[in-house]
Amino acid sequence: MKSILGPGLALALALSTAAPAFAQDAPQPPRIVVNGEGEATLAPDIAEISLAVVREAESAREALTQNSAAMAEVIKALKEMGIEARDLQTSGVQVSARYDYISKPDNTQESRLRGYEVTNTLSIRVRDVAKTGEVIDRAVSLGVNQGGSITFTNENPKPALTEARKKAVADAVEKARTLAEAAGVKLGRVTEISDTVVSQPPQPILAKAYAARDAAPAPAPVEAGENAYRVQVSMTFALEP
């Protein structure tokens, strides 16, 4: 029987039939994958604080007016203390209705509008960490009555991260050598490496720091401590016969 396939189609079919023989994956060379960890500490040079002014009044307009006046005094005082405008940022303004709930004889509750509450939250970046307690104390004395969080950071954490990376790599290399020696094989060159920086969680302000202003004129006690920068690495080594 005479073939009805053209030469081009016949060749394509022949190549597709042979393709699986070339598609087989080459065997992976022997290797070992290890993880390493490193940590370095650095004294913080920036404190990031979140503070809020909360005011309540019969009308939303009145609550906002009172809140704005108090926050304006706080911002003015902070600037007089040396906090630059670039380090002050409004992070939220919220207006909400407030209700009183009254129990009735039939065991139901009746809600009555008590007024409106306005919350204005300010994020402050303090570049002189030693003044953190003074900044909190001054802000509270002028109208701040709600706290968020305080985070001690570093403007340039690169030196600490570099040190942590070196320690993480050294840790991974030591693990790889130990495993290779125990297995009776020879460690080869590094074929792959990656790293991950572990973030530092914010540190909350203690409520007693706000009460301190009523007991004594001293600034609220705040301890900066040290920031720990942690790095994890994953390294792949070839194994020689």
UniProtKB/TrEMBL annotation:
Question: Which Pfam families does the entry mention?
Answer: SIMPL
Keyword terms = Signal
Is the keyword Signal in the record?
yes
Q: Which superkingdom? A: Bacteria
Give the range the annotation lists for the signal sequence: 1-23
What protein name applies here? SIMPL domain-containing protein
Write down the species.
Mesorhizobium liriopis
Instruction: Identify the taxonomic lineage of the organism of origin.
Output: Bacteria, Pseudomonadati, Pseudomonadota, Alphaproteobacteria, Hyphomicrobiales
